[in-house]
Amino acid sequence: MTLWAEIRDLVVRNQVALADRLVTLTEEERAELGGQVPGLAKELRRAHTEQLRAEHPDDYEEMSSWEVGELLDGLANGLLLAGVGVIGGPAAAVTWMTGRDVNRRWAEELNVGQVCRVAASRPLEWRREVAVRLARRVRRPADRLAPLAVALLRE
Whose CA is closest to 80, among 132, 24, 135, 40? Predict the structure, then answer.
Protein backbone atom coordinates (compact mmCIF):
# COMPACT_ATOMS: atom_id res chain seq x y z
CA MET A 1 0.00 0.00 0.00
CA THR A 2 1.38 3.41 -0.92
CA LEU A 3 1.69 6.16 1.64
CA TRP A 4 -1.08 8.12 -0.10
CA ALA A 5 -3.41 5.08 -0.09
CA GLU A 6 -2.69 4.56 3.61
CA ILE A 7 -3.46 8.18 4.54
CA ARG A 8 -6.56 8.26 2.31
CA ASP A 9 -7.85 5.07 3.94
CA LEU A 10 -7.25 6.48 7.43
CA VAL A 11 -9.09 9.72 6.56
CA VAL A 12 -12.11 7.67 5.56
CA ARG A 13 -11.99 5.08 8.32
CA ASN A 14 -10.11 5.96 11.51
CA GLN A 15 -9.24 9.43 12.81
CA VAL A 16 -7.35 8.21 15.87
CA ALA A 17 -5.03 6.05 13.77
CA LEU A 18 -4.78 8.91 11.25
CA ALA A 19 -3.55 11.29 13.95
CA ASP A 20 -1.08 8.68 15.19
CA ARG A 21 0.26 8.20 11.66
CA LEU A 22 0.43 11.90 10.81
CA VAL A 23 2.67 12.71 13.77
CA THR A 24 5.23 10.15 12.54
CA LEU A 25 5.58 11.54 9.01
CA THR A 26 8.92 12.86 7.84
CA GLU A 27 9.15 16.21 6.06
CA GLU A 28 9.70 14.36 2.77
CA GLU A 29 6.51 12.35 3.31
CA ARG A 30 4.59 15.50 4.19
CA ALA A 31 5.81 17.13 0.98
CA GLU A 32 4.75 14.08 -1.02
CA LEU A 33 1.27 14.08 0.49
CA GLY A 34 0.80 17.85 0.72
CA GLY A 35 -0.09 18.22 -2.92
CA GLN A 36 -2.55 15.33 -2.87
CA VAL A 37 -4.69 16.14 0.17
CA PRO A 38 -6.38 19.24 -1.32
CA GLY A 39 -7.91 17.08 -4.07
CA LEU A 40 -9.15 14.42 -1.67
CA ALA A 41 -12.58 15.89 -0.93
CA LYS A 42 -13.24 16.30 -4.65
CA GLU A 43 -12.10 12.72 -5.29
CA LEU A 44 -14.35 11.35 -2.52
CA ARG A 45 -17.29 13.44 -3.71
CA ARG A 46 -16.87 12.17 -7.28
CA ALA A 47 -16.56 8.52 -6.22
CA HIS A 48 -19.65 8.75 -4.03
CA THR A 49 -21.65 10.43 -6.80
CA GLU A 50 -20.64 7.71 -9.27
CA GLN A 51 -21.70 5.05 -6.78
CA LEU A 52 -25.08 6.74 -6.34
CA ARG A 53 -25.49 7.02 -10.11
CA ALA A 54 -24.87 3.29 -10.48
CA GLU A 55 -27.25 2.35 -7.65
CA HIS A 56 -30.02 4.89 -8.40
CA PRO A 57 -29.82 5.88 -12.07
CA ASP A 58 -33.23 7.56 -12.11
CA ASP A 59 -32.94 9.87 -9.13
CA TYR A 60 -29.26 10.08 -8.28
CA GLU A 61 -29.08 13.85 -8.87
CA GLU A 62 -31.60 14.57 -6.13
CA MET A 63 -30.00 12.09 -3.77
CA SER A 64 -26.48 13.19 -4.62
CA SER A 65 -26.50 16.55 -2.86
CA TRP A 66 -27.86 15.10 0.39
CA GLU A 67 -25.71 12.00 0.32
CA VAL A 68 -22.51 13.81 -0.57
CA GLY A 69 -23.21 16.41 2.12
CA GLU A 70 -23.61 13.67 4.71
CA LEU A 71 -20.44 11.99 3.46
CA LEU A 72 -18.43 15.20 3.83
CA ASP A 73 -19.98 15.91 7.24
CA GLY A 74 -18.73 12.51 8.39
CA LEU A 75 -15.26 12.99 6.93
CA ALA A 76 -14.71 16.65 7.84
CA ASN A 77 -12.61 15.99 10.92
CA GLY A 78 -10.41 13.45 9.15
CA LEU A 79 -9.96 15.82 6.23
CA LEU A 80 -9.00 18.63 8.61
CA LEU A 81 -6.48 16.40 10.40
CA ALA A 82 -4.92 15.37 7.12
CA GLY A 83 -4.56 18.99 6.05
CA VAL A 84 -2.97 20.02 9.34
CA GLY A 85 -0.63 17.05 9.10
CA VAL A 86 0.64 17.48 5.56
CA ILE A 87 -0.17 20.76 3.81
CA GLY A 88 3.07 22.71 3.63
CA GLY A 89 2.24 26.38 3.68
CA PRO A 90 0.31 27.94 6.58
CA ALA A 91 -1.90 29.95 4.21
CA ALA A 92 -2.75 26.84 2.21
CA ALA A 93 -3.42 24.85 5.39
CA VAL A 94 -5.83 27.48 6.75
CA THR A 95 -7.55 27.79 3.38
CA TRP A 96 -8.06 24.01 3.47
CA MET A 97 -9.27 24.03 7.09
CA THR A 98 -11.81 26.79 6.46
CA GLY A 99 -13.01 25.55 3.08
CA ARG A 100 -16.59 24.40 2.61
CA ASP A 101 -15.63 20.73 2.27
CA VAL A 102 -13.77 20.66 5.60
CA ASN A 103 -15.44 23.29 7.79
CA ARG A 104 -18.89 21.68 7.69
CA ARG A 105 -21.75 23.09 9.74
CA TRP A 106 -23.21 19.66 10.59
CA ALA A 107 -19.93 17.82 11.14
CA GLU A 108 -19.17 16.16 14.43
CA GLU A 109 -17.52 18.28 17.09
CA LEU A 110 -13.85 18.78 16.39
CA ASN A 111 -11.39 16.98 18.67
CA VAL A 112 -9.20 20.01 19.37
CA GLY A 113 -6.66 18.03 21.39
CA GLN A 114 -6.14 15.60 18.55
CA VAL A 115 -5.67 18.40 16.00
CA CYS A 116 -3.23 20.19 18.33
CA ARG A 117 -1.26 16.95 18.74
CA VAL A 118 -0.90 16.67 14.96
CA ALA A 119 -0.07 20.38 14.68
CA ALA A 120 2.62 19.97 17.35
CA SER A 121 4.54 17.78 14.91
CA ARG A 122 4.90 20.78 12.58
CA PRO A 123 7.53 23.55 12.87
CA LEU A 124 6.88 26.26 15.47
CA GLU A 125 6.70 29.09 12.92
CA TRP A 126 4.18 27.09 10.87
CA ARG A 127 1.99 26.59 13.95
CA ARG A 128 2.17 30.26 14.92
CA GLU A 129 1.21 31.46 11.47
CA VAL A 130 -1.62 28.92 11.19
CA ALA A 131 -2.93 30.00 14.60
CA VAL A 132 -3.00 33.69 13.65
CA ARG A 133 -4.47 33.09 10.20
CA LEU A 134 -7.13 30.75 11.59
CA ALA A 135 -8.07 33.21 14.35
CA ARG A 136 -8.53 35.94 11.73
CA ARG A 137 -11.01 33.71 9.90
CA VAL A 138 -13.28 33.20 12.92
CA ARG A 139 -16.47 35.17 12.28
CA ARG A 140 -18.73 34.31 15.20
CA PRO A 141 -18.33 32.82 18.70
CA ALA A 142 -20.05 29.58 17.68
CA ASP A 143 -17.67 29.08 14.75
CA ARG A 144 -16.70 25.40 14.63
CA LEU A 145 -13.01 26.29 14.35
CA ALA A 146 -12.94 28.96 17.09
CA PRO A 147 -11.88 26.54 19.87
CA LEU A 148 -9.08 25.25 17.67
CA ALA A 149 -7.88 28.77 16.88
CA VAL A 150 -7.81 29.62 20.60
CA ALA A 151 -5.97 26.40 21.46
CA LEU A 152 -3.35 26.99 18.76
CA LEU A 153 -2.86 30.60 19.89
CA ARG A 154 -2.27 29.43 23.47
CA GLU A 155 0.55 27.09 22.51
Answer: 40
Number of H helices, E strands in the chain: 9, 0
**Distance between CA atoms of residues 76 and 11, nearest Å:** 9
Task: Quote the CA–CA distance of 120 and 103 in Å, as a whole number.
Answer: 21
For 81, other C-beta atoms within 10 Å of its C-beta total 28
- How confident is the prediction along the chain (155 residues), in pLDDT tens digits per residue? 899 999 999 998 887 899 999 999 999 999 999 999 989 988 888 887 777 677 777 776 666 666 777 888 888 999 999 999 999 999 999 999 999 999 988 888 999 999 999 999 999 999 999 999 999 999 988 899 999 999 999 98
By the 10 Å C-beta count (0-12 exposed, 13-18 middle, 19+ buried), 128 is classed as middle
Q: What is the C-alpha to C-alpha distance for residues 4 and 12, in angstroms, rounded to an integer?
A: 12
Domain map (residue ranges) of the chain: 3-154
User: pTM value?
Assistant: 0.90
DSSP character at residue 39: G
- Could you give the CA distance from residue 55 to residue 146 in angstroms, rounded to a whole number? 39
